[in-house]
């Protein structure tokens, strides 16, 4: 067996080259796809240096280059290739699991959604993730060794001190578990876990309705209700990771009992299951939110009233959020976002009435642009950050060592 190659000493040309390559790779990992000119500006590297690195890493298979147009001129779009590694996202909902495989430019290569029991155990949930990941990788012809990180979204607060899934949670079988540590052990890859509203905020801020805004609140309205807060591009999680739990803002202290143990929380008024229960006496128990939205548009007064009332309650909570957080953009996502024109007017009216005038006037209310994909894409973002920089560095070193071995073979 040949001895391992000696690592370049700090300050040597080889070390500087590796550092520049790592800087470029991290830029592509963050942005997905960039032109060579954008890479030069983003990394601070000279255009000639960027050109040389891109040429070398494209030859080695780590990068992929394709023609594009930038500012009216022909340019080369650069992205990480599948050979640099792949990411996995696992998004758990109240009764579903979505798993996606993506390259390091966040292009989804394979995806599957399955139904789960709401009270499933954490072991069963992770076993399902492992099963789906194995099948998707096999179907896509991807070596499992190329997985450099997995991001997991849960409809629950995650305690940043302990990593434990907190209560209240839409997944009672996960409460008290250090989900990231357990998943890393069971799945054999680095795993990062966060609240699903936070992941939606990350994705919408980077690729969706949050682009161009400094301070963003992503409000997820589904069977669980929560908010993800982004301040100047950085996710704000609070002192222990539970910032944004708008679903448990008290709307009526003598109201219905909430799963968190308090009464009259926003979630007891606007959770999709609550809205459908209100409609069940007239429309039966098989109604969905999509059905209710369609019927409201067709003139059904009970569906319209329930959805507009939900918008009002959300608006009151959003007004309090704006008074405290003062965002410049509120993004409405989740299942209830389907009722866009039926709830946004109610949200805005309540916000104008309940909010500080200056804060209410400064904020825009928009709908999420990424739909159901927002939580999956956010999970890919944290999977990527969890994999950096060691996994990518290993991929780079393996690629370079392979190239050097091939070169030696040709020379001899």
Overview in brief:
This protein has 412 residues and is of the alpha/beta class.
Would you spell out the secondary-structure blueprint of this structure?
Blueprint: H1 13-31, E1 33-35, H2 36-43, H3 47-59, E2 63-70, E3 73-80, E4 86-92, E5 96-103, E6 108-115, H4 122-140, E7 147-154, H5 179-187, E8 191-195, H6 196-207, E9 215-221, E10 225-231, E11 234-236, H7 267-270, H8 272-283, H9 289-297, H10 301-325, E12 329-333, H11 340-354, H12 357-362, E13 364-367, H13 373-387, H14 390-411
Parallel strand pairs: 4-7, 7-8, 9-12, 12-13
Antiparallel strand pairs: 1-3, 2-3, 4-5, 5-6, 9-10, 10-11
Structure description:
The strands form 3 sheets. The chain has a 5-stranded mixed β-sheet with strand order 6-5-4-7-8. Strands 11-10-9-12-13 form a 5-stranded mixed β-sheet, with helices on both faces. With 412 residues, the chain is an alpha/beta fold. It is built from 14 helices and 13 strands. A hairpin with a 3-residue loop joins strand 4 (86-92) and strand 5. Helix 4 (122-140) crosses helix 5, helix 8 packs antiparallel against helix 10 (301-325) and helix 10 packs across helix 11 (340-354). Helix content is 46%, strand content 20%. The model is unreliable at 1-10 and 399-412 (pLDDT under 50). The longest helix is centred in the last third of the chain and has 25 residues, at 301-325.
């Amino acid at each position: 067996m040949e001895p391992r190659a000696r690592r370049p000493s700090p300050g040597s040309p080889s070390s500087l080259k590796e550092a520049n390559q790592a800087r470029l790779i991290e830029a592509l990992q963050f942005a997905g796809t960039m032109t060579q000119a954008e890479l030069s500006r983003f990394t601070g590297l000279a255009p000639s240096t960027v050109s040389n690195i891109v040429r070398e890493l494209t030859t080695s298979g780590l990068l992929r280059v394709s023609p594009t147009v930038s500012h009216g001129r022909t340019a080369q779009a650069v992205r990480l290739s599948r050979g640099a590694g792949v990411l996995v996202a696992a998004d758990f909902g109240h009764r579903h699991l979505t798993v996606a495989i993506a390259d390091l430019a966040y292009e989804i290569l394979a995806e599957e959604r399955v139904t789960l029991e709401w009270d499933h155990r954490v072991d069963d949930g992770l076993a399902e993730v492992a099963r789906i990941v194995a099948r998707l990788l096999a179907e896509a012809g991807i070596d499992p060794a190329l997985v450099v990180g997995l991001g997991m979204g849960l409809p629950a607060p995650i305690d940043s001190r302990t990593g434990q899934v907190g209560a209240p949670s839409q997944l009672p079988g996960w409460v008290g578990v250090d989900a990231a540590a357990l998943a890393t052990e069971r799945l054999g890859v680095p795993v990062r876990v966060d609240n699903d509203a936070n992941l939606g905020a990350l994705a919408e801020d980077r690729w969706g309705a949050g682009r161009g805004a400094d301070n963003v609140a992503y409000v997820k309205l589904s069977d669980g209700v929560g908010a993800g807060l982004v301040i100047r591009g950085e996710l704000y999680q609070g002192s222990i990771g539970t910032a944004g739990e708008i679903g448990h803002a008290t709307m009526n202290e003598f109201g219905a009992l909430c799963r968190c143990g308090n009464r009259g929380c926003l979630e007891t008024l606007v959770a999709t299951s609550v809205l459908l229960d209100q409609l069940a006496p007239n429309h039966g128990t098989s109604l969905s939110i999509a059905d209710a939205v369609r019927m409201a548009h067709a003139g059904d007064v009970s569906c319209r009233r329930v959805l507009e009332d939900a918008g009002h309650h959300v608006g009151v909570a959003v007004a309090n959020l704006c008074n405290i957080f003062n965002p410049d953009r509120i993004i409405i996502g989740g299942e209830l976002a389907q009722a866009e024109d039926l709830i946004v007017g109610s949200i805005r009216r309540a916000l104008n009435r309940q909010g500080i005038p200056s804060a209410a006037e400064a904020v825009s209310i928009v709908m999420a642009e990424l739909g159901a994909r927002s939580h999956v894409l956010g999970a890919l973002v944290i999977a990527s950050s969890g994999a950096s920089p060691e996994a990518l560095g290993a991929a780079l070193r393996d690629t370079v060592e392979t190239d050097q071995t091939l070169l030696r073979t040709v020379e001899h």
